[in-house]
Amino acid sequence: MKLVKSLLLGSAAGLTIVGGAQAADLPVKKAAPIEYVRVCTAYGAGFFYIPGTDTCLRISGRARAEYGYIGSDNRRVTGGGDLSGFVGLARFAFDTRTQTGYGTLRAFLRVDMASRTGHTKLSSGTNLRGGYAFSGTGQDAFGRIQNFVNVDKAFIQFAGLTAGRASSFYDFYAADYEIIGSSLGSNMPSTNLLAYTQKFGDGWTATISMEDPNYRKNPLFTNAVPAAGAAAGTGALSQVLTTAPTPIILGTDALGNATSVAFIDAVQRSRLPDFVGSLRYDAPWGSAQLSAAVREINVGGFISSVGVPGGSAANAQALLAARGLGDGVQTEYGWAVQGGVKFNLPFIAPGDGLYLQGSYGEGTSFYTGINRFTAGYLANASVYAGNPFNQYLADAVVNPLSGRIELSSSFTAVASYLHYWSPEWRSAFYASYGEIWFPTGARQATSQANALVNSGNTVAPGSYLTNPVGYATSQSLRDTYQIVTGASLIWSPVKDLDIGVEGQYIRTGVKGGRVADQDKGGFIGAGNAQVPTRTVSSEDVFQARFRVQRDF
User: Fold this and answer.
1) Closest to 187 (Cα-Cα) out of 547, 546, 484, 479
2) Taking the CB of the first residue and of the last residue of the chain, which one, N or C, has fewer CB atoms within 10 A?
3) Which residue has the higher pLDDT, 371 or 29?
4) DSSP state, 170?
């Protein structure tokens, strides 16, 4: 028994030694080392190193809810009668920075997405026309339910270069203190550009920028009609045609009636970028900036003619050439200048500030921002759907008598003050004023082409003359002014949370005379004897917006 026991113990010991040796000889698979995310302190709070790189990244975003109200007393017109609306907005942003031998290499991406409903100042027609949004198509949804998607920012900055989608370098105040953001003045937060900025030291910088002209282009005003002629009542600007054929009167009879007409293409093509330059100064007391912009305004050439002697296109083009118009192709250059200053006012309360800004331009209504509240990408628009008259906003007019492009002029001025009542409570108070006017004679010349009627290749007698009494009260191409002013109260109970409300008063009026009330008035008489039953000289409206916003 003892012998058996000794053999068993010896065998177990031997197996243990052998097994241990075999286990020691087996390769051991080691776990990959864990690379922990490291905080990047070089560019401020929130940045961290992307694992495996020397690039720092900050991820941020925003959630916003809004409820808006605007006065409207007309429920009988298309789009009229809406008083309220809602907005739900999401924002995502990515900011990457890498140190190089040339300085910081930065790429910044920001996308906004929103669902908006209700009146046209929340469900924005400007964004719809500008390609930022798409609308519902149901009977009660059209123009009232809108989804909004915008690549707000997507740019690269390197060694003074900015390339991609960014805010226009023309802008300064850009509604910085506002909730609604529709005070008069330039505000183009998203455009495509290529710019270079030079730093001179002591707070001075200068920028020259080539910017996408399609985001700063209001259409020309023309009496656009079908190229082959027009039926009664069609003398209005076409917003959707690839070409907008506009008439140029080549001949008249003794009474001033048109006897021959040529049509040219009056849609602006994208031929040159807008050129923007700015000079900026930043100091502890605040900032100041001087900006300028130049943009091309163009129309295409000859399309067709009616009533031209000989009836040939060659004869029509010869008559155009005799006026110095060649084949009808023309180019003019609009321009704008802007000056602004911001004062930091910590001696009143920490965070207080005051902006003052003014802009003047010719053929550049988007740069002066006279169309900021009313509308963009339209030759004319109303303060609200169904108001008595429209404000005309065209960058230029194709004069149907001379055939030449004539630029509109506009200016705006804005003052905005932000005051902190306490670290948690603040208010903004702002007021803006602007005017837009058109060349002398352009309105009267346009009136003569306003009721174009023709049949076949003849021009009906009297077709270019309109009722002089009725036209005296027409809203067409009237010189107008606009006032946009407002105030807000915002509560920030915790960091990066804003709960606030803003009220806004708007007045739009004609600078002289009166216009027919398109809402409550109507007309009496018939044909060229029609006159309005009621006229107005201005229109007032109030709107308010409540916002809850969380940034992270």
Assistant:
1) 484
2) N
3) 371
4) T
What's the CA gap between 254 and 231, in Å, rounded?
24
Q: What is the dihedral of CA 340, 344, 347, 349, to 10 degrees?
A: 110
The answer to whether 170 and 185 are in contact (CB under 8 A) is: no
- Please say if the pLDDT value at position 8 is more than 60: no
The band of 297, judged by pLDDT with boundaries at 50, 70 and 90, is: very high
Listed in sequence order, the residues at least 6 apart from 251 whose beta carbon sits closer than 8 Å to its beta carbon are 258, 259, 260, 307, 308, 309, 319
Give the sign of the dihedral formed by CA 38, CA 41, CA 47, CA 53. negative
pLDDT digits (tens, 9 = 90+) for 235-275: 333 334 456 678 888 877 666 666 778 888 888 889 999 99
In this predicted structure, what is the pLDDT of residue 57? Answer: 97
Mean pLDDT of the chain: 83
Kindly list the distances between the CA atom of residue 340 and the CA atoms of 292, 412, 414, in Å, as whole numbers in the listed order.
12, 12, 9
- At 7 the pLDDT is 41
Structure tokens given for 330: 């023309």
Cβ atoms of 145 and 103 within 8 Å: the answer is no
- Residues paired with 48 in a beta bridge: 39, 57
CA 439/CA 3 separation, integer angstroms: 126
Q: How far is CA 546 from CA 27, 180, 302, in A?
A: 67, 9, 52
Q: Are strands 535-536 and 204-211 parallel, antiparallel or unpaired?
A: unpaired
Of the ranges 42-51, 381-390, 409-418, the best mean pLDDT one: 409-418
Judged on CB neighbours under 10 Å (0-12, 13-18, 19+), 531 is middle
How many helices (H) and strands (E) in the chain? 6, 31
Tokens of 266: 């009056």
Q: Which pLDDT score is estimated for 35?
A: 65
User: Where are the extended beta strands (E) located within 317-450?
Assistant: 330-344, 353-362, 380-381, 391-392, 396-398, 405-407, 409-420, 425-437
**Coil, strand or helix at 233:** coil
- The token pair that represents 545 in the structure block: 């917006």
d(CA 525, CA 532): 9
Phi, psi of 403 (to 5 degrees): 80, 5
**Tens digits of per-residue pLDDT, 194-238?**
999 999 989 999 999 999 999 999 888 876 654 343 333 333 333
> Residue range 132-156: average pLDDT?
87
pLDDT > 70 in the chain, percent: 80
Q: Are 196 and 161 in contact (CB under 8 A)?
A: yes
Q: Do residues 241 and 442 touch, judged by C-beta distance below 8 A?
A: no
- Both tokens of 440, joined, read 């002398």
Q: How far apart are CA 297 and CA 281, in angstroms?
A: 31
Task: Decide which of 74 and 7 is more confident.
Answer: 74
Q: Which amino acid is at 434?
A: G
Confidence of residue 34 (pLDDT cuts 50, 70, 90): low
Instruction: Name, in order, each residue with C-beta under 8 angstroms of 548's C-beta and a sequence gap of 6 or more.
Output: 64, 65, 66, 497, 498, 499
